[in-house]
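Researcher: For the annotation table, I need structure tokens for Pachytene checkpoint protein 2 homolog. Please keep the output clean. Sequence:
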Amino acid sequence: MSSPMEVVERDPGELKAQVDIEAGKEVEIVSEENGGVEEPQPSSDLTEDKIQVAVEVCLKPTSTAGIHEVRFAVERMLEKRCLSYANGPIPVPADDILLVENVERICICEIDELVDNQDVLLFWQVKPVVHVFQLSEEGPCEELSADGQPSSFNEWILPAKEFDGMWESLIYDVGLKQRLLRYAASALLFTEKGVDPLLVSWNRIILLHGPPGTGKTSLCKALAQKLSIRFSSRYPQSQLIEVNAHSLFSKWFSESGKLVAKLFQKIHEMVEEENNLVFVLIDEVESLAAARKAALSGSEPSDSIRVVNALLTQMDKLKNSPNVIILTTSNITAAIDIAFVDRADIKAYIGPPTLEARYEILRSSLQELIRRGIISNCTDDDHKILPSYISLKDKLAQGVDDTETVELCKQLLGAAEACEGLSGRSLRKLPFLAHAALPHPQSCTPLKFLCAMINTAQRERSELPD
């Protein structure tokens, strides 16, 4: 991870010169500090092909400022300041009253997904795209059925406070999350532009499959949250409908069909509003295949297969609505219904975390415990940033292994290696279990904590079923 972002005030004359450079004009930039020697200009490649970088601006719950007003203020702030763009927060400028009163945080997102082997982008390489949003605090809305039983779905207004930070906390191989974002952008664009689906086919259906505990459901929710922010200028309202496929099958004959009808009636009402972006999350979709096979074998009533067919038919009808994306998950890859697999545009396997992912998960957990004071920091720097997996590998390759931070990260790497075979869900619980196993947690250093975490990981692995 790169160092925290440096924010430097830019001289108006320098700003104008930079704008002229970006416009293709020949401008000499002269620095007084080096005795009037001409500064090298950015290469034409950097000025011609700028990288779009997402800048997310979260408003305070009490903010009443307009979205466009805040966006303009942030864009103006970015133009006036010289930034080296790296993942992480940007300080809200204290001299801007509008931003101070209304903005909770400003954050640069996903630089590592956009640039290979480079942690920082310089300001002339970047075209910032500002997304302003305010979190909904309403929580999930669960309707009751006619018989008083819980409904077969939950509903969230996005972006929701419950999902805030979830996207950043999910760590996978580089490229997966960006692939999902780009897919959604293309799917919505093709629909908006009226591309003939008979000539170019797409269904706006994503299938994430893999073993339990790998974060598939969380990734779907985080993706819906992220897309609701990124497309807020086109769709001011966004909603998430979460459905558990098991809940669509009733023990009462013919009731299952009514559950499916009620569910999709609700969805169709939502998508009728053109400014409303709707996400439908169907969890454990492999149960559809199990019901179909059981019905065909005669062990289940024909009502089950009618429900499955009705669900697939309703999903096909949603193709005509440009403002809906269907997100599905499955824990049993081999059990997914082939009729459903054919409908999915993206079929992404979410497997156990790799060594790099395990290191990054544990690193983020360790930094959080140090930041909160649960683990005592050996140095005076309470906000010490531990190097990323790639940075650590570079340091070790260069022979830089004598610093306290590198030694700590080498121990952290050992902990990540000891966690092979554990799911992402287990890795997130591991620091808590390690702390609970400490005999004297009040005076625990990071190195002692990592030793305890390695022992806890070994115990957790030994208790895994064969």
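Researcher: And a one-line annotation?
Model: The mean pLDDT is 82.
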